[in-house]
């Protein structure tokens, strides 16, 4: 019981540090943020933070790991829906909600920019992207096998197109934070349905 409590505390501390780092990176950028700033934002001593993360690189890798777990959970939820398109529409709605967070765009582009300079971060970012594409391709193939999705569509290209839509909306929100992506919900649903449904 005591061991479980210690593990739970460690997990809470880790999440506390990651949340603080996300806020710092979104406000000031990756390179302008020091580990000391992350410590202050988290309200923890340097020793406490360095116990979990030795560097900002470690923090970004951990963020990617958290994002990967979240992505797998979302794909699993979508895959559990008997109607694949309904599952994909719910997935799209979840992603829109995430992108609508004002911190999402700056953090996304900071990680992308760092990946262009840092091979370790680049490896993590590319692996995450490949897993997202693979998850989307698998969903689309299942939808085609079940008769829910147009069999004429190439699953890989369709997956890349849908992901590009999310990337584009992330960029639009970054350029104009006043945009409320909740207003795009119905339009996005209509576009996705028309794109994926079998032709009559």
Automatic annotation (TrEMBL):
Family annotation (SUPFAM superfamilies): Homeodomain-like, Tetracyclin repressor-like, C-terminal domain
Keywords: DNA-binding, Repressor, Transcription, Transcription regulation
Residue ranges: DNA binding: 34-53
Top-level taxon of origin: Bacteria
InterPro entries: BetI_C, DNA-bd_HTH_TetR-type_CS, Homeodomain-like_sf, HTH-type_TetR-like_transc_reg, HTH_TetR, Tet_transcr_reg_TetR-rel_C_sf
Hydrolase as UniProt keyword: no
Gene3D superfamilies: Homeodomain-like (1.10.10.60), Tetracycline Repressor, domain 2 (1.10.357.10)
Domain HTH tetR-type: 11-71
Pfam families: TetR_C_6 (PF13977), TetR_N (PF00440)
Residue stretches spanning the membrane: none
Gene Ontology MF term list: DNA-binding transcription factor activity; transcription cis-regulatory region binding
Record-linked PANTHER family: HTH-TYPE TRANSCRIPTIONAL REGULATOR BETI, HTH-TYPE TRANSCRIPTIONAL REGULATOR RUTR
Record's protein name: TetR/AcrR family transcriptional regulator
Provenance organism: Gemmata obscuriglobus
